[in-house]
Amino acid sequence: xxxxxxxxxxxxxxxxxxxxxxxxxxxxxxxxxxxxxxxxxxxxxxxxxxxxxxxxxxxxxxxxxxxxxxxxxxxxxxxxxxxxxxxxxxxxxxxxxxxxxxxxxxxxxxxxxxxxxxxxxxxxxxxxxxxxxxxxxxxxxxxxxxxxxxxxxxxxxxxxxxxxxxxxxxxxxxxxxxxxxxxxxxxxxxxxxxxxxxxxxxxxxxxxxxxxxxxxxxxxxxxxxxxxxxxxxxxxxxxxxxxxxxxxxxxxxxxxxxxxxxxxxxxxxxxxxxxxxxxxxxxxxxxxxxxxxxxxxxxxxxxxxxxxxxxxxxxxxxxxxxxx
Length: 324
Ligand code: NDP
Known about the structure:
It holds the Pfam family ADH_zinc_N. The chain is built from nine helices and 15 strands.
């Protein structure tokens, strides 16, 4: 089978190789992969910009969709369409940037009926995480009537999907982006306004004018700290990413004087039983236009070049990889 293989001796190497399928790791289901994607974490792994992989050789790719080729798990039969996001696949276990993967059946989700494999991967880990962020705002009591929602890293995979989901749910969304050229794209997804990230990446006062009833943050750092200082009384912030910085130079003031909530969002180990309903919701909410606007397609042998572009912030929306 063809796979992107990462290896590390003195330096990291990444190349497309022919691998004997007998080398696939243990697992009870083998999936013929049709589509995988390029997420921020994949780009960190493939370029070596982040310590994502600790055990080499490794096939990266934290998500995939395809068809069951062989199954020892009674929940899955040969020919069934499935998808996978998270569970350490592409980090600890060989991942989706290959023609086949052998995984635990526990990690697979049946493909929702009204979704194609390609659409599922345009959503991918990023879109699944965006849905979790929206649900975190809902759990915090944020409603479409309660005010504006800010979404950072707006042109990226999580940001683009979050804007679309929020807009479809009737929320008023303000996109925060470092790329003014993407204005029309962000408006087309449903943002009502776009603000430059430069308005938010300078140190802020502990409390600023109250502007947001909710925030979905994918970048961390000073931007997140500034937004926390601007959240309205009782507001909720869902933080899932660190595209700018892993640090959070904030004060406790917005928490103790404005009763705000900071909810972390983690997509990797969401229990299997909860996943089908989240995917059903994504399928119902995302309009057909989303897949055209936010999805672009590359081949497996273009992944390395595109991973470098993603790290340099030269990619818009989601990138799906046609594997076979
Ligand atoms: P993308 O690369 O697709 O998007 C990231 C976006 O962030 C870019 O498009 C850009 O938007 C903005 N950005 C990039 N670099 C910077 C910077 N230095 N300063 C400020 N903004 C920046 O990544 P994803 O959307 O897939 O992921 C976003 C984050 O969420 C990542 O940190 C990723 O690791 C994390 N993540 C976490 C998950 C979880 O389970 N917690 C799951 C999935 C992702 P613009 O050009 O509009 O400014």
